[in-house]
From TrEMBL:
Protein name, as recorded: 2-dehydro-3-deoxyphosphooctonate aldolase
PROSITE patterns in alphabetical order: PROKAR_LIPOPROTEIN
Amino acid sequence: MKKITIFIVLLISVTSCVSTKSTLKNVDDNAPDLVLSKNNTFIIKEFSKDKKYGYNPDYPINIFYRNTKDEALNETRFLNALAGPNGEKITYTRLETCCPFPTKRSDMGAGFLNVYELKWEGQKKPITLYLNIYEKGILMVPMGLNLKKE
């Protein structure tokens, strides 16, 4: 009886980790496909006017590009296109993976957000961005950042 109870508790805890309904607010499967520049970064033409875009796990930066087999490559293509607010060179570090959500673009049926910390010279405190390699959306520069000059 004790083993059955432990098994049921374990089963409930495992299945409760991934919700069946996504909390992501800015997924757009009709968004145009992402395009690469000659510098192997994504071409970004829009600047977000939403303070939550990229800074909130419910409003991640959706960088789905063809497949998710090499997630770091797509994240690098996005982050390397960015600069600080006055064109400063940024450095970034991946902090963690978090926030599971359901997706059809993963063999597991679930996706995760990757959390990055961005820094640049003269900055008072680093910023944190949430990136999603599994879903599509309009790619924009988050508020407070700029595009790198080519």
